[in-house]
Design brief:
There is one protein chain. About 35% of the residues lie in helices and about 15% in strands. The longest helix is centred in the N-terminal third of the chain and has 13 residues, at about 65-80. The strands form five sheets. Strands 2-1-14-13-12-11 form a six-stranded antiparallel sheet, with helices on both faces. It contains 14 helices and 15 strands. The two termini are about 15 Å apart. With about 350 residues, it is of the alpha+beta class.
Length: about 350
């Protein structure tokens, strides 16, 4: 690690010393090079007896995966096989909602909830959940307002990929993006990769109910169906790890995520391998919606799959504390993956330490 970034290392270690972190990794690229690559704690539990977290430990990063799923569809846009302003029904004829591809990508399509209550086992049934969305009535007129498509985003994006390309979004990601850019991340893990996964655990037992909020409210409906997405017994199961639930079940290393954003920050090229045109990267990171988000309950700037912050950075945080983004102004990419499901104050402190170094 570069000596210049020692305050970041110290902040990372302090999280463990204070008991606020039990297993995590942090990777930062600056000026096109990796400058911080840290792991700490345990992969398999909160105590000292667990297996140590390793550089190749995969964590479930929740919504950090949404931009990754979006990039699969956006690669087809870049190849002129999908048009952003075409109706989704052009590619998915059974899809009833009159939303465009752009509206789906920017969380304004009006479909933040799966309309039919489903048990946790439905996580593994892509056709069932995609069919539910195809027949759904939107919660609002597409384009009128945004609401994070918390659980549905991956199926909306991924089914368009599947209809156009023939491959699932997980296979497309592996073959077209993760493979060429050497990114250790994926949807729908094989058994060997599942053995590398961190066991998710609660920072405190009340975390799931706080995240869902009021029963029956839009947020609770958006994040509670199919069941099990906030239940560590489900999150740590072969069912969850092996399924493709792309809105929320990307499994990734911090290194893989930081490399992905480094490629985007460089205009779509990494290690001399170009995957995206500079024009597409510009469009992907441009604000598409700026206003209230009905699911998150606060104002948001949505790009095509990412959140853009007032300082110009773009990326995505995930439920539970994982996060990954690029900061073009300061010239870095940042990725933090954690098994300790809690708030984002850990990342806030790491970023404060990072900015003090810059």
């Amino acid at each position: 690690m570069h000596a210049r970034f020692a305050p970041v290392r110290d902040c990372f270690h302090d999280l463990f010393t204070a008991g606020r972190e039990t297993g995590a990794s942090l990777t930062i690229w600056y000026d096109g090079q990796p400058v911080v690559d840290l792991v700490g704690g345990s992969r398999t539990g909160a105590g000292p007896e667990g297996e140590p977290w390793r550089p190749d430990t995969l964590a479930n990063v929740y919504s950090v995966g949404k931009p990754v799923a979006a990039l699969c569809l956006l690669m087809l846009v870049d190849r002129e096989r999908v048009a952003l302003d075409s109706p989704v029904g052009r590619y998915w004829p059974e899809f009833r909602t009159p939303a465009t591809v752009r509206q789906v990508l920017s969380h304004t399509a009006g479909l933040p909830t799966f309309p039919v209550p489903r048990p946790a086992t439905a996580i593994a049934d892509w056709a069932l959940l995609a069919g539910d969305l195809a027949a759904a009535d939107p919660e609002w007129s597409p384009g009128a307002v945004a609401g994070e498509h918390a659980w549905t985003y991956g199926h909306l994006v991924g089914e368009v990929v599947r209809r156009v390309d023939g491959r699932s979004v997980g296979r497309f990601l592996a073959e077209e993006i993760a493979g060429p850019w050497r990114l250790d991340l994926g949807f729908g893990l094989a058994e060997a990769d599942q053995r590398r996964c961190a066991e998710m655990r609660y920072g405190d037992p009340g975390w799931p109910s706080r995240k869902l909020g009021e029963p029956g409210a839009l947020r609770a409906r958006a994040m509670g169906n199919p069941a099990g997405g906030l239940d560590v017994a489900v999150l740590n199961s072969p069912l969850w790890r092996g399924a493709e639930m792309p809105a929320v079940n990307l499994h990734a290393t911090a290194t893989g995520l930081a490399r992905l954003y480094a490629g985007l920050l460089a205009g779509g090229v990494l290690d001399d391998v170009r995957l995206f045109s500079p024009e597409l990267v510009t469009e992907v990171t441009r604000v598409q919606y700026d206003g209230p988000d009905l699911v998150l309950g606060n104002p948001v700037q949505w790009t095509l799959g990412m959140q853009r912050e007032p300082d110009g950075s773009w990326g995505m945080g995930g439920l539970g504390g994982s996060s990954a983004w690029a900061d073009p102004e300061r010239g870095y990419t940042f990725a933090y993956t954690t098994a300790q499901l809690a708030e984002h104050d850990r990342v806030d402190e790491l970023v404060e330490a990072l900015h003090s170094c810059l």
